[in-house]
Amino acid sequence: MAMLGATVTGIDIVEKNINIVRLHAWEQSLPINYHLTTAAELATSGARVNVVLSMEVVEHVTDLAAFKRDCNRLTNEGGVMFVATINRTPLAWLFAIFGAEYVLRWLPRGTHRWRQFRKPQEIRAFLADGGLVVNDITGVAVNPFTRTLRCMWLIQVTYMMFCTRS
Q1: Does residue 160 sit in the same domain as residue 87?
Q2: The domain that contains 90 carries what CATH number?
Q3: What are the pLDDT digits (tens) for 70-115?
Q4: Is residue 141 part of a domain?
Q5: Structural domain containing residue 61
Q6: How far apart are CA 124 and CA 43, in angstroms?
Q7: Helix extents (H) in the chain
Q8: Which of 30, 68, 79, 152 could form a disulfide with 25 if both were Cys (CB 3.0 to 4.6 A apart)?
Q9: 128-57-26-19 Cα dihedral, nearest 10 degrees
Q10: 155, β-bridge pairs
Q11: Domain count for the chain
């Protein structure tokens, strides 16, 4: 998004992650502001943005209701939110945990917990509670050889939602 000229702010609660993404932005000469903070702290400060990206986060959040409430509060009137996560299905366990963590070893073992994977209707309910409407949902496929992503009709493993606040 920064490459396209958007003003981008990234947040994370893990300092190591912030340091890594700051280095990536510096290497690419991208003017991205990174902050070690939570969505709750940012929302409480009164910050509001036009686009919220909650990408591969909700499956790691303990209090999903509070997290989504804070993300919803951050989204301006007329703003949009994208949510990408892993579905809680046996197929997702096979690919995201067994495949990615044990077979391909892309991620450390224990990165994901199947019980924290989120079904689309669960995320949709949290968004609706905050006044956001899901306009579209698509599956996301990973090519294990090129590590590239593509959209697809199947949402049983990973999916992404496009939401708006009117």
Answers
A1: yes
A2: 3.40.50.150
A3: 999 999 999 999 999 999 999 999 989 998 889 988 888 988 899 9
A4: yes
A5: 51-165
A6: 20
A7: 15-27, 39-44, 64-74, 90-92, 120-129
A8: 30
A9: 130
A10: none
A11: 2
The span from the CA of 162 to the CA of 134, in Å, is: 6
Handedness of CA 149, 152, 157, 158 (dihedral sign): positive
Summarised one tens digit per residue, pLDDT across range 156-165 is 999 999 999 9
The partner residues of 34 in beta bridges, in order of sequence, read: 10
Structural contact between residues 125 and 59, judged by C-beta atoms closer than 8 angstroms: no
Report helix, strand or coil for 110.
Answer: coil
Residue 146 domain-assigned (yes or no)? yes
Element (H, E) at 142: strand 132-142
Which run of H or of E encompasses 151? strand 149-152
Reading the block at residue 42, the tokens are 């940012």
Rounded to whole angstroms, the Cα distance separating 97 from 121 reads 22
What is the distance between the alpha carbons of residues 65 and 104, in angstroms, rounded to a whole number? 32
- How far is residue 161's CA from residue 30's CA, in Å, rounded to a whole number? 26
Q: 64 with 21, same domain?
A: no
